[in-house]
Structure formats: structure tokens, C-alpha cells
């Protein structure tokens, strides 16, 4: 069982932390719970979040379900499918991001229509 819970609109999603970015993960964990009205860009949602965290293991192509932080823009992002920047249908950020977690089942997001409120919290809260 993961200690991370993600809610998008009325959808509760199972999520897990990744070990690729320990500084960014620690900063996000310390900030939890976080929430925001997210903007949609293709099959990505992002909202404002300022963390004191560097760009770690930067990449633009990310796995489906990636929870990522974009330090240059101060945004937390959730990817579940192609974006306007995608090549060959993979999820792709507009600029390098740090992946800190992953939603394990993105299917509930397929029917999402437009913008949505996103909340990340520690499952122990």
C-alpha cells in the first residue's frame, strides 16, 4: 500500500512514489497536502506549486501516470496520455520535468472533461 493518494475531480487514484528524485520527493512530501485547480494540456493536468527543489533526472518523455514537478514553472503535473508535445503517442512534457511518483491506474482519467481540481495527500492524513 502506498502512502500517496491523488484525487482528480471526484476520482480517487492509487499512486506510488518513485525513487528517481529524492530531493524533490522530500520537498513534495513535506508540503503535503497540496491541491489546485489544474489546467489541462492534452492528457496532462498541471497546477501551480512552488517547491524548493532542483530539477532531478530531467526528462520530457515520461511514463503514463507520471506525477512530475516542473521547477522552472513552479507546476505539479499529472500525465496519462499524449500531449501536444508528444511523439508517437507517449506522454511528453513541454519542458524537462522531475518525476516523483506514478498513478498506477489512469483509466478513470480517460473520461475527464476539461480542467479539474487535483489534490495530493499523504494516505496517513
What would you say this structure looks like, in words?
The chain has a single domain (4-122), classed as Cyclophilin, CATH 2.40.100.20. With 125 residues, the chain is mostly beta strands. The protein has one helix at residues 22-31, and strands spanning 4-8, 11-17, 34-40, 44-48, 59-61, 66-70, 75-79, 92-103, 116-122. It contains 1 helix and 9 strands; from the N terminus they run ββαβββββββ. Helices cover 8% and strands 45% of the residues. The protein starts with a strand and ends with a strand. Pfam families: Cyclophil_like. Residues 114-125 have a biased composition (Basic and acidic residues). Residues 104-125 are annotated as: Disordered. Residues 4-120 form the Cyclophilin TM1367-like domain.
Amino acid at each position: 500500500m502506498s502512502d500517496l493518494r491523488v484525487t482528480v475531480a471526484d476520482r480517487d487514484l492509487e499512486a506510488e512514489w518513485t525513487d528517481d528524485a529524492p530531493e524533490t520527493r522530500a520537498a513534495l512530501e513535506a508540503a503535503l497536502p497540496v491541491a489546485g485547480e489544474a489546467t489541462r494540456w492534452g492528457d496532462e493536468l498541471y497546477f501551480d506549486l512552488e517547491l524548493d527543489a532542483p530539477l532531478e533526472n530531467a526528462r520530457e518523455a515520461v511514463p503514463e501516470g507520471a506525477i512530475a514537478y516542473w521547477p522552472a514553472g513552479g507546476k505539479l503535473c499529472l500525465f496519462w496520455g499524449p500531449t501536444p508535445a508528444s511523439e508517437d503517442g507517449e506522454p511528453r512534457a513541454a519542458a524537462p520535468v522531475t518525476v516523483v511518483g506514478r498513478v498506477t491506474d489512469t483509466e478513470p482519467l480517460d473520461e475527464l472533461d476539461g480542467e479539474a481540481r487535483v489534490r495530493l495527500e499523504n494516505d496517513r492524513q
